[in-house]
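This section describes the prediction task in plain terms. A model, or a person checking by hand, is given the sequence of a single protein chain and must write out its three-dimensional structure as a string of tokens. No templates, partner chains or ligands are provided. The sample shown here is typical of the held-out split.
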Amino acid sequence: LAIRLPKEIEERLTRLAAQTGRTKSYYAREAIAAHLEDLEDRYLAMHRLEHPTRRWTMEEMEQGLDLEG
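The expected answer:
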């Protein structure tokens, strides 16, 4: 995996790594892990909007789970 970063971001990352004794790769992994789930959710939502499927009402969900009885 190779990542090209804007100069300002690269400098900030280099500075953070130097100040903390961690590697730039460590912080890149941390940043990706922290935001990957949000990105996955966003793309899933976009896909579902573009390709709608069956939707259920709250009443249908409650009946299927037998929450009223």
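For orientation: The chain has a mean pLDDT of 91.
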